[in-house]
Amino acid sequence: MTPITEVAGRRLALSNLDKVIHPATGTTKGEILHYYAVAAPAILPHLRHRPASFLRYPDGPDGQVFFTKNPPPGTPEWVRTAPVPRSDDPGARQIVVDDLPTLVWAANLVTEFHTPQWRADAPGLADRLVLDLDPGGPAGLAECCEVALWLRERLAGDGLDAYAKTSGAKGLHLLVPLAPTPSREVSAYARALAVAGEAALPGLVLHRMTRALRPGKVFVDHSQNAAAKTTATPYTLRARREPTVSAPVTWEEVERRGPLVFRLGDMPARLERHGDLLAPLTDPGAGGRLP
């Protein structure tokens, strides 16, 4: 029998709680749901008001993994959706994870959470910039940290504050709160940053996605600033054999150049110690303006 749980006044059917989802650590679906319930005060401000895309892995990362934007069949009527017109579906809508019941319901589907750089009430008007630092072996996290520190200084020169989080995989994400700015302008500025990084650190930084050029370098992926793109939401679990989290990190940790891998069980203590290191990204008054 599927247990029924009440979450903030909503009745939820939570299924297969003993099912192992992350095989390297034996992490169960029940433990995943507990993580999101505990992390809700930190993750919800980063999900709220943004149309969410789900990367689902209901049988773990070794099973079927699929990306979905449309609300799945059986979505409760109380789950908020917002219109997100697409060229192939002008009437498309996406889920907005605004509250704890919606978060727990969505986590029960076993999903990574991904969000765009804009809010549902202002599509295509970015309130943050993101740079995804992706190392090509043998480069790794230490090289990503070096590039992140250069980018932080470069952004500061333009009057912009940068914040860092792990990707939850092998790289880093840099995020910058912005006053609302058209996505095309943010995309152009982000690309210029990546190009400047390659000019300043030619043996380390790459601004193009070309696979053949990537070994030993850090690809500064600026493309996620396009209005149609999304990025892994802060605090989301990733669809990997271990339950790694896309976790905010301090600049002191970046300066130490790793290791920066955080798992589900690490996060309660980090949140108690640091709070939400990315809180400025959710403050409407904290955004800087592009030069």
From TrEMBL:
Keywords: Ligase. Coiled coil: none annotated. Residues 28-277 form the DNA ligase D polymerase domain. Gene3D superfamilies: DNA primase, PRIM domain. The keyword Ligase applies. GO terms for molecular function: ligase activity. InterPro entries: LigD_pol_dom (IPR014145), MtLigD_Pol-like (IPR033649), NHEJ_LigD (IPR052171). This is Non-homologous end-joining DNA ligase. It comes from Streptomyces sanyensis.
